[in-house]
Amino acid sequence: MNLSLFRPSRTTAPLAALLLLGAASSAPPAAAVPADEEVRIGAVLPVTGKESKIGGAFKQATEFAVKEINDAGGLLVGGKKLKVDLKLLDDTSDAAKSAQLVEQLIAQQRVHAVIGGYGSQLVQAQSVVPERYGIPYVAGGAGATSIYGRSKWVFGTLSPVENLATTQMEFLQDLVAAGKLKKGLRISLVTENTEHGKDFQKGVRDFAKAHPAEFTVVLDESFELYAPDFKPLLTRVQQAKADLFMCDAHLEDFISMQRAYTQMGLYHLMLTYGARGADEAGRKGLGAATDYIFASGWWSDLLPYPQVKAWTAKYKAATGTAPQWYHATAYETARALLAAVTKAGALKPDAIRGALASLDLEDSILPGGKLKFSRSGQALLPFVVTQNKPGGKIDLVWPKAAKTGDPVAPVPRS
Amino acid sequence: MQELREVLLNTLLAAGLYATMSYGLAVIYGVMRIINLAHAGLMMLAAYVTFALYTRYEMDPFLSLVVVIPLFFLLGVLLHRFVVRRLPRTTGTPTMQSLLLLFGVWLVLQNLAYALWTGDTQSILTPYTLKSVTLLGVRVGVPNLLVFGVSALSLLALNFVLKRTYLGRAIRAVTQNRDAALLSGIDADRLSAITFGAGTAFAAIAGTSLSTLYAFTPDFGRSFLLKAFCIIVLGGMESFTGVAAGALVLAFLENALAAWTPIPTSFQDAISFTLLVLVLVAVPQGLPGIARKVARWRASS
Amino acid sequence: MTPAPVSRRTLPWLLFAAAGLVLLLAPRFLDRGSLNDVWNVAFGVILACSWNILGGFAGQVSIGYSAFIGIGAYTTVLLALKGVDPYLTLPLSALLAAVFAVLIGLPAFRLRGPYFTIVTIGVSEAVRVFASGVSFTGGSSGLRMPAGSFDFSVNYASMVALALAVIALTAALSRSPFGAALGAIRQDIDAAEALGIDSTRFKLGAHAISAALVAVAGSLYAINFQYVAPGSVFDFRLSLSIVLMPIIGGVGTLAGPVLGAVIFSYLQIKLLTIPALRDSYLFIYGGLLILVMLFEPKGIVGLWNRLAASVRRSPGGSDAR
Predict the structure, then answer these.
(1) Which one of B295, C114, C173, C258 is least enclosed by Cβ atoms within 10 Å?
(2) Chain A interface disruption, residue of B5, B130, B225, B257, most A CBs within 10 A
(3) How far away is chain B from the Cα of A401, in angstroms, using its nearest Cα?
(4) How far apart are CA B121 and CA A54, in angstroms?
(5) Considering the entire predicted model, what is its pTM?
(6) Which top CATH class is C31-316?
(7) Residue B119 backbone phi and psi in degrees, to 5
(8) How far is CA A79 from its chain centroid?
(9) Is residue B300 part of a domain?
(10) pLDDT digits (tens, 9 = 90+) for C87-122
(11) Nearest to B215 among A221, A236, A285 (CB)
């Protein structure tokens, strides 16, 4: 026997170490499928990184929804109350990691269902995985239509962003009909270069094209997320001399852009930043500069349903946070999934998926008061339009049936 | 005419901020041959410290510079003493080691910010944040003007130190000809510590300035860092007047392209990076390449 | 009955072949979760070892390799959407990336040290901004692979085989005259030029080879994840992790990038799946980076060599202490 063979040489040793590591990595003994004494729910959210603001809110609301169930003794599944074990991971707003983490949750942590992330790109990346393993998946933070309808396992509670834009246009059209605004409105359309921004852009463009007498888009620009300087862009907006300013932006960009907008003394008859405007953080950073901005969203605490009032109070008391639309949709996403598990009566993927597809969640806090998924898997709920009023007041101005105040149009010049 | 004035004024205002952002990088690079990747993290941290001072003690962000500048100078000196100094000394080109080390520092700073302030978007709203004044027929935001004032003052101060003090002469000597300067008995270690402190203080000035203009998160600063890279490359890496010129060129391009060409503004960043590559390539190796050859020839003979 | 003596030269190759065989056969005895881990590690190994050809052997540090992953991934997805079998697109991915690498390298290799590094950052960011601005890439929304074009076992085998091939290739390269020339360029480019080595040509060659390999990995990545977007494949963080892996393991060595990739790719995902560490993973990365850079810049291989040397110096090994 050649003993020198076993003496570590410079090259063999690391290679041997590699082999060992390789073995170690696969060693966690093919984790015997844990018994179903608990409901394992996976969630992959962007808690840090670019989307961390809303990702963090999603985490809080999801954890709140699960805690509520567990505090009440657990989730009723097939006549037994089971604890819900939420395995919530952070994908650091990285699409590549996001998909891998969902895969980890399903293949290694054996979750029964997955709650998706926030942000269309991240959810796009994730949504490939559920189909591969046949595990139900509900996203509460992606409104892009292209995500849905590809896999029967993928569901989403956010209505399409395009519809959000369309709702805003209908609201404006109604203002024209009411004589508050004049026909032939020229629009400066400025959107962030993300899927969210593009869907918004498409919604506005298509509507304007279909209603040429009322609307024309005279400026159509996009910008990179977290642009360092909005002056050049807003200079173009100034030159376009449009009547309406319609923008779609993340919170940071909303604050930075609206600051520059105010300083430059720009004026439009009406202005919106898509879903932004009513946010508390926005008001903190902009103060009176948010007055009269109208925004549409997937939820508002002004919705005239009793369940909304009760939930808002409960949420505030438990977390100390005044809930925004993203808290509400995240909460409803978790609630819908857990309700589907109860309805399925068993921890079988097929049964849960079936229950999701036929879910009809009553007493939903979302607009319309009922949550169900369309055939593509995406919920199609109405949108609300709010308008900020001076003194930190916010009014729900659309749909008319639910309004808490009249829209102010055109915006008074300051 | 109005348009030209607007472009020029906006260029000047943006350039002031860009220059402040870049000086910290340039000073450290000049003396220590280190590309400080933690620069972005330090700007972000300064923004948060300013924010904390504002919310906790209602201290005006510009006034808080009195606290922030010495604080970050000290932080820079400590960072140098306990981290950067331990790197093997480099003579010629910066090592990958220093680049990655400081990248590590950036990550740690980010995590620190997440732990202290969460990932929420923060912003500072002062009574004058939304105010503007008319200057030469152009409306200009008050904070932008103040930021420009701070930039101009700090650049003047830097200029004074560089031109009129022993320390400044030492810094310039090391920047221009490292080996000769070190041979002539300059205390390199002390000089490096002070330089790193100064570079960090400049990052802090930039961070505080940015915090009055923008909303920020712990991720804040990356796009500004890339811009600053572009500027110091444009300015030839080593010359301080070059940096100011680089800032002006970049700011002018951004404003002019938006005003007079139909190029979408979303390509703004691509433009600055393309410019960066073009300059680096069109002026191949630049002066440092020649300087290094001379140094090597000297060392070998 | 004397067995053929196993020389020190062939032993690593035998071990390597055995490891390869085990990994290729792994689908027979490992569950899907572990296979995903191996896939991940293999992906990391390809990136790290390919980068090492230019960054380690030739000493040209590029922080822009995500551009090649992106080129590979987009080539595959775009062609697959036109009905081409995804695996048939691999050669084209490699070719396109190599061409792009040469085009970028021609001007960029006139620069040295940090200037070259900064240019690579600039180029990759420009490519990302461009890719999210034009329409044929699907813009910032990205593109999905056509439905029903996925088979994990094929993808797994391809990725693992490619990783093994890349390891073997870098080992062969390091012993070839080509590798020697790259080494000369790293140590002293002026001296190398004086010896008649056309440094630009060798650097271009190394860039093209490594870019092609990375692009193929990018294609396989796209086939596995079925979705590409500028934010995922052109991400600056991806470029950084490609650099980090060889650094942790040991730049310019053969085993270093492999070790670095194994540890880094494995930890990267695992760290994120441990909820207790969720809020401090940046701390861990940053701290690790600082420690490696300060105390063992040659990475794990350097550490190992140091340990081995000290064991050799004190016969009796650990008992002596």
Answers:
(1) B295
(2) B130
(3) 34
(4) 10
(5) 0.85
(6) mainly alpha
(7) -85, 5
(8) 33
(9) no
(10) 999 999 999 999 999 999 988 888 777 778 878 888
(11) A285
